[in-house]
Specification:
The protein contains three helices and ten strands. The protein is of the alpha+beta class. It binds methyl 2-acetamido-2-deoxy-alpha-D-glucopyranoside (2F8) and calcium ion. It comes from Oreochromis aureus.
Length: 245
């Protein structure tokens, strides 16, 4: 411990400079000043150096710890992000396909709506998924068939009792799309499907009086639930077109 009153010599004893002679006091003071400067400059410098070194070590340790944790944590985080990304991509693909399906459905519905508006405006009758056109003029069976074709339809194909009832209620003699022109006695619809449910009037088909009656017409016996008749294809009647929606 140093102070202005004294000076610590090599033996550790404190000298009182007031008791010294003038030259000895000067020498002691000079020595005190040199050592004080040395002490004043060197002690805080060493502390700072130690502090900086310690902080640097701490930083190095922290950096190393951070590196290790990042190395351990990053692959795990990358894995989970990759999985999440794949899941989101899968969901995105699914949604894109759904958008596609819905877009097609919307287009289909739009087309149907336009068709409905078109056929309804043209005076066609709607029943159970089909529009029906009843001609006001008469033609042969083949010309009637062609006419339906030009209208984007076919001569009516009757496939149920309900449909037969609907057609019978129109109370008109009309060609329908049934014929045995290809093979006598083998009745086929114009869409090539064979006859399953039939509604022949009693005694029909009969090739009346030995005539070749190969085409089918709705007979005028409207009161009877079964009113089909085979008639000569060249006869001229009204006709019934059907457009299945
Ligand atoms: O014109 C031919 C047609 O004539 C009659 O119906 C009006 C016959 N019906 C009966 O004899 C009951 C049909 O078979 C014949 O096709
Ligand atoms: Ca007949």
């Amino acid at each position: 411990m140093l102070n202005m009153k004294g000076h610590e010599d090599e033996s550790g004893m404190v000298l009182d400079i007031r008791n010294l002679s003038s030259p000895a006091r000067s020498a002691a003071l000079n020595r005190f000043t040199d050592e004080s400067v040395e002490v004043a400059t060197s002690v805080p410098g060493r502390k700072l150096h130690k502090w900086v070194a310690g902080s640097f070590c701490l930083l190095c340790i922290l950096q190393a710890a951070l590196n290790v944790s990042l190395r351990l944590a990053l692959p795990l985080q990358q894995d989970s992000m990759k999985k999440e990304l794949e899941e989101q991509k899968r969901q995105l693909d699914y949604m894109a396909s759904q958008v596609n399906v819905l877009t097609n459905e919307r287009e289909e519905l739009k087309r149907k709506l336009e068709d409905f508006a078109h056929y309804a405006q043209q005076g066609w009758l709607y029943f159970n998924g089909s529009f029906y056109y009843i001609s006001s003029i008469a033609k042969s069976w083949q010309d009637s068939r062609d006419n339906c074709s030009q209208r984007g339809a076919v001569l009516a194909i009757i496939s149920s009792r309900e449909e037969q009832e609907f057609i019978r209620q129109q109370q008109k003699v009309m060609w329908i799309g049934l014929t045995d022109r290809e093979t006598e006695g083998v009745w086929k619809w114009v869409d090539e499907t064979p006859l399953t449910a039939s509604f022949w009037y009693s005694g029909e088909p009969n090739n009346f009086k030995g005539r070749n009656e190969d085409c089918v017409v709705i007979n005028h016996y409207y009161s009877n639930e079964n009113n089909w008749n085979d008639a000569v294809c060249e006869n001229e009647y009204s006709w019934l077109c059907e457009k299945h929606m």
